[in-house]
Amino acid sequence: MRARLIVNPQAGRGVGRRLGRAIDSRLAALGLDCSTTWSEAVGDVARQVEAACRAGHDPVIVAGGDGTVFEGVNGVMRAGCGTRLGVVPVGTGNDLIKAAGLPRDWRAACERVVAGSTRRVDVGRCNEHYFLNGIGAGFDAEVARESRRIRHLRGNLVYGAALAKMLVRGVRTPQVTIEDDAGCITDAVTLVAVANGPWYGGCFHIAPGATIDDGWLDVVVAAAVGRLGVLRFTPRVLAGTHLTLPIVTHHRARRVTITCEQGLCVHADGEILYDAARRLEIEVLPQALSLLV
């Protein structure tokens, strides 16, 4: 069956729209028999990927950023057909690209897709959603939510502006209970990250030792701090040196349950899942996805 390319025209603040036809032409020039469609709204990539998998298209290729990849993974996993997933990056953060060692340049990415080498990678599941990079609950998710409202900036400047706005509003430190392979803790926190890969948010090196095919999730918890604490913590996360801070705990697990009566803002791969989640059941599905590399 022919390959299917699904382009997100909104990815990278419109970069997907500008490069979509060039990506289609590049894949054809490299000899890939591929039909192309365009997404029209949030959730449409997931629906199209699932339908393409069920129709027998293989591989299915998505052109976009981490949000597009997030939807692509959900489409492949829901179809349950074992379809290979290819990625051509045209987004803002492109965290999966860094985690998988894929090229950032879209032309080189097309060449990798056509070459057809595969890598089995782990997939995380949070309630009914799947993810590749990680789950963030608390302050970082609130920053991710705020970044979606900023339209006049690009790249890492978006996250910097969103962080500044959230600091002005104040830092919430809800009480959470975390149960996993390492035990159970109840404490006030600034954020909880459950990471499959080392990066999220484009520049935040949240779990430096994480790899996407080791069968583990890295659990990173930042204890309750105020504005000044966040300002001290953030540069360390950018550098990936925060795990040694006294306010940070880190361990690995295969299953994690997080509960919070106050409700948590939660993102998966940068996409907001919940504004006020009270219970998250998270697990790793080892080597559940065939990724073209």
Describe the 3D structure.
The two termini are 20 Å apart. The protein folds into two domains: 3-116, 3-Layer(aba) Sandwich (Rossmann fold), CATH 3.40.50.10330; 130-286, Tumour Suppressor Smad4. The chain has 293 residues and is an alpha+beta fold. It has helices spanning 11-29, 44-54, 66-79, 95-100, 106-115, 139-147, 156-169, 227-239; strands at 3-7, 34-38, 60-64, 85-89, 118-126, 129-131, 134-138, 175-180, 183-195, 217-223, 248-253, 255-268, 271-292. β5 (118-126) and β6 form a beta hairpin. It is globular, with a radius of gyration of 19 Å. The strands form two sheets. Strands 5, 6, 7, 8, 9, 10, 11, 12 and 13 form a nine-stranded antiparallel beta sheet that branches. The chain has a four-stranded parallel beta sheet with strand order 2-1-3-4.
